[in-house]
Design brief:
Blueprint (H helix, E strand, L loop, with lengths): L11 H18 L13 E6 L5 H12 L3 E6 L11 H9 L5 E6 L4 H8 L4 E7 L5 H16 L9 E5 L6 H12 L3 E5 L7 H5 L11 E5 L2 H5 L4 E4 L15 H8 L3 H7 L4 E3 L12 H4 L6 H21 L10
Parallel strand pairs: 1-2, 1-3, 3-4, 5-6, 5-8, 6-7, 8-9
Length: 325
């Protein structure tokens, strides 16, 4: 695996390889001294052209826990502000011979574009436009794997309801690909403006690796009924000037996830949210702070997943082939 540009196109073996490596990294994050020499002498550059708290900090912590030299570059602190193109910026950094380039960009396809022109540097997609956010899907699946393994279950054969603004969510897209790959039933739940008909068709073009089923629901109660997992998406407030929903109050009334609703229609479910959360709009505080919520676990697993991705791409080895220490 030279790059990680998306979940789409991964085989089940590749997906499980990344999950298995991530489990190994979870143990390191639980130690008193959370540092190993696995990537000593390697360089990781984080290029973030969009604001980020969780993803950027977890990639930085992941690199440092593996003893890599980590450099952070933001759009405001780079020559992009002087008119330099993304490619020229990346080529400048690549000339310094980094081992891994982690990229977040507002343009869909930006990481894939860079990977095409930087053959000697591994590229990781940390979120590109409305396309994908692969490490988020991996950490979500790792979190679910830990939860369901405690109940002697796996993460295949699940019913997942993704609620909210799927149209604008790269997190949703990566999770859809992941769960279809695992053979799960995926339900997209939200108002028609967030779930246009062509959205479902976009995930049926190449289904050779996808064994799951994708359905669309415009009614919240029907959509979450019997779900094992309810994933709430952030309602992107910056897009509300485009009037995808009449008002935040109406959206919350029709699609806000509450404990009362879950107790009736999905009593055994757990809840995920990629963050940041608009409390009381897409999901209630009672749910977020309650026993169903796996949100804090998602954040902690984000570091382990990103450690696994950096290690695999920088060394070309999985944790089963070498000693991490």
């Amino acid at each position: 695996m030279k790059h990680l540009l998306g979940i789409e196109g991964l085989s089940r073996d590749e997906f499980y390889l990344l999950l298995d490596n991530s489990r190994e990294m979870v143990e390191i994050s639980r130690r008193d001294i959370k540092k190993v020499p696995a990537l000593r002498g390697k360089t990781v550059i984080n290029m973030f052209f969009e604001a980020s708290t969780r993803t950027r900090s977890s990639f930085e912590i992941a690199g440092k826990r593996l003893s890599a030299d980590v450099v952070n570059v933001s759009a405001t602190g780079s020559s992009v502000t002087k008119g330099e193109t993304l490619l020229d910026t990346a080529r400048t950094l690549s000339a310094m011979a980094p081992d891994v380039l982690v990229v977040r960009h507002s343009a869909s396809g930006a990481p894939a574009f860079l990977a095409r022109y930087l053959p000697d540097t591994a590229v990781v997609n940390a979120g590109d436009g409305l396309h994908e956010h692969p490490t988020q899907a991996l950490l979500d699946c790792l979190t679910l794997s830990e939860h369901f393994s405690a109940r002697s279950q796996g993460i295949e054969g699940l019913r997942l309801a993704i609620v909210g603004d799927v149209l604008h969510s790269r997190v949703a897209r990566s999770n859809i690909w992941a769960h279809l790959l695992l053979g799960n039933e995926v339900r997209l739940v939200g108002p028609p403006t967030f779930l246009p008909p062509e959205l479902k068709e976009a995930f049926g073009a190449d289904s050779s690796q996808c064994r799951g089923r994708l359905e669309v629901y415009y009614d919240l109660k029907s959509g979450i009924a019997g779900a094992d997992v309810v994933m709430c998406l952030r309602l992107q407030l910056e897009r509300q000037s485009q009037h995808f929903v009449p008002s935040l109050e109406e959206y919350s009334r029709e699609y806000g996830v509450s404990e009362k609703l879950l107790a009736r229609y999905a009593p055994n479910c757990v809840v995920l949210h990629p963050g940041p959360v608009n409390r009381g709009i897409e999901v209630s505080s009672e749910v977020l702070d309650g026993p169903r919520s796996l949100v804090s676990k998602q954040v902690s697993n984000g570091v382990a997943v990103r450690m696994a991705v950096l290690f695999l791409l920088a060394t070309g080895k999985d944790t089963g082939e070498t000693t991490i220490a």
